[in-house]
Design a protein that fits this description.
By secondary structure, the protein is α/β, with parallel strands linked by helices. The chain has a domain of 55 residues. The protein is 25% helix and 18% strand. The radius of gyration is 18 Å and the shape is extended. The relative contact order is 0.28.
Length: 93
């Protein structure tokens, strides 16, 4: 019987945990930013999320942002973060 080697691609450096951002109890009246990361079908997912946020959670405003390419950082991330109350990064495929 032959052997199978399994390589687990983990980083062995110690990285301290990053605390989560504070959570809100309600989305009512808040400005929500939706980030389309540029992957296929993300726009469909975020359109559905937008509709749900408006109909079910009474958000005040939804603003869409779109990255140019999925693997590149969003050059406007600081502007987005400072202009919305809550942000969602969308993932397609």
């Amino acid at each position: 019987m032959s052997e199978i080697q399994v390589h687990i691609p983990i980083d062995v450096r110690h990285v301290p945990p990053i605390p989560l951002a504070p959570r809100t109890n309600s989305l009512k009246g808040l400005k929500v930013g939706l980030l389309d990361n540029g992957k296929e079908f993300t726009d469909h997912v975020l359109d559905g999320l937008c509709e749900m946020l408006e109909n079910d959670h009474s958000v005040g405003e939804v603003v869409f942002w779109r990255k140019g390419f999925p693997s590149k950082a969003a050059p406007f991330i600081d502007q987005m973060a400072s202009s919305v109350d809550v942000a969602v990064s969308g993932v397609g495929h």
